[in-house]
Amino acid sequence: MRLTRYFLPVLKENPSEASIVSHRYMLRAGMIKQSSAGIYSWLPLGFKVLKNIENIVHEEQIRAGHIPMLMPTIQPADLWRESGRYEDYGEEMLRIKDRHGHDMLFGPTNEEMITDIFRAHVGSYKDLPLTLYHIQWKFRDERRPRFGVMRGREFYMKDGYNFDLSKEDALHAYNRHLVSYLRTYERMGLQAIPMRADSGPIGGDDTHEFLVLADTGESEVFYDSAITDLKFGDREIDYDSVEQCQNVLEEFTSRYARTDETHDEAAFANVPEERRRSARGIEVGQIFYFGTKYSESMGATVINDKQEQIPVHMGSHGIGVSRLVGAIIEASHDDKGIIWPEGVTPFHCGIVNLKQGDAEADAACEALYSALESHGLEPLYDDRNERAGGKFATMDLIGLPWRITVGPRGLKNGVVELTSRRTGESQEMAPDAAVARVAEIYANL
RNA sequence: CGGGCUAUGGCGCAGUCUGGUAGCGCGUCCGUCUGGGGGACGGAAGGCCGCAGGUUCAAGUCCUGCUAGCCCGACCA
């Protein structure tokens, strides 16, 4: 993309409405525009990041054997009356009446709806196990929305629901989600630590929250620092293997790691003192096993191999897709702007032309642009008639992980400059070498 | 939902106390000179001063009511 043809309304100064760093940078980098409290338009740059995150979530869900679908944002109140949550949910649920006077609601989650779909079409144990998920906009009418997209009222979320014949099977689904979530966050350049959590209004026995450590996190967390050494890496996992998934769960949850809701001082005291940490964290996902809570109240049953009608065991599993955009920035930025991890960056590489209009510089930039594209990469070429300082400041703000700087001075010696946004280190090299290096970085993701 | 604060051009702000031609910086547009970390000069556009009512010869400014947004807390993914 050429910057002169793009829509990137960057702001030089900090908008007064934003207090935390991710919100400030998302506004300044032209990623979002607030519409009303907790509701945002996603401008092109923000939309790209949102979609990149969504794609990673999809890929990892499908890899784990989960099946994508899409349910509506607007749901009928009657479904929620059946589960009893229409009354329980309170003011956070946005209630709407349609023209016929029917009570509707903008869904804050989809347990009722998915259970309704399940009971209509699934009747036999032979259809299980089954895990369906979707990525859809949700609405929770927060009393006090804040922190930009991290606690909006409208938010984009992946929610998945597993249906299993037994508690044992459902716990495997739980473990499978935990493993797939570890992979998902790691691909986004995040370390998200699974922590034992409180089940809240969804209810249930087993639940873990995934938290990204960041100073601005809304939850206080306590953990054994040994857990931050754990990496999922490129290990091969057979998601059908109960044993393999169980092993990963044990590896990643055996160390002490809890939010303040479930924090236990006595248990924490058993962690060696030098490894005890308290910090702040941003919740970016949660997995639940809740048994037969919804299947019993809503009649989601199957016939087992003994001709008995039994309620299915369920769990639900969420990833906050829109919230992740903010969380990644909280975890990866400096005083100049955002630093995107390669996995989610809106463009793979920036091209800065230091002297727009100079025939050689222009030609070299065009050549770099095509060469990067021919490697399947998406460059952002700053072809504005701006001075160097302005171009650098924009690139630093929007956070592309790699930048190639092209100027007459370097071209005289046949070189351009390749700069890492994260480390700030620059290397001079031939244009071809710079392209090859960037291509290699992305090929190895 | 309690407490606090704010609302003036796209963004950041002054002007309100003490009523009298709506201003500054940044950004935007045009031109010239520039060209390795937000450059210089010259020109230009852009505002029912959040909304409604009131006081007054006169309201951005004073009064009343409302709305929206932000911050702290409680709450929450």
TrEMBL record:
One Gene Ontology MF term: proline-tRNA ligase activity
In which compartments does the protein localize? Cytoplasm
User: Which keywords does this Swiss-Prot/TrEMBL entry list?
Assistant: Aminoacyl-tRNA synthetase, ATP-binding, Cytoplasm, Ligase, Nucleotide-binding, Protein biosynthesis
Aminoacyl-transfer RNA synthetases class-II family profile domain segment(s): 38-341
Family matches, as PROSITE patterns: AA_TRNA_LIGASE_II (PS50862)
Please write the reaction equations for the catalytic activity of this protein. Answer: tRNA(Pro) + L-proline + ATP = L-prolyl-tRNA(Pro) + AMP + diphosphate
Documented EC number(s): 6.1.1.15
Q: Does the keyword Protein biosynthesis apply?
A: yes
The answer to whether keyword Cell wall biogenesis/degradation applies is no
Q: Which InterPro entries does this UniProt record tie to the protein?
A: aa-tRNA-synt_IIb (IPR002314), aa-tRNA-synth_II (IPR006195), aa-tRNA-synth_II/BPL/LPL (IPR045864), Anticodon-bd (IPR004154), Anticodon-bd_dom_sf (IPR036621), Pro-tRNA-ligase_IIa (IPR002316), Pro-tRNA_synthetase (IPR050062), Prolyl-tRNA_ligase_IIa_type2 (IPR023716)
Protein family per UniProt: Belongs to the class-II aminoacyl-tRNA synthetase family. ProS type 2 subfamily.
NCBIfam families assigned: PRK12325.1
**Quaternary context:** Homodimer.
Role according to the record = Catalyzes the attachment of proline to tRNA(Pro) in a two-step reaction: proline is first activated by ATP to form Pro-AMP and then transferred to the acceptor end of tRNA(Pro).
Record's protein name: Proline--tRNA ligase
UniProt source species: Pseudohalocynthiibacter aestuariivivens
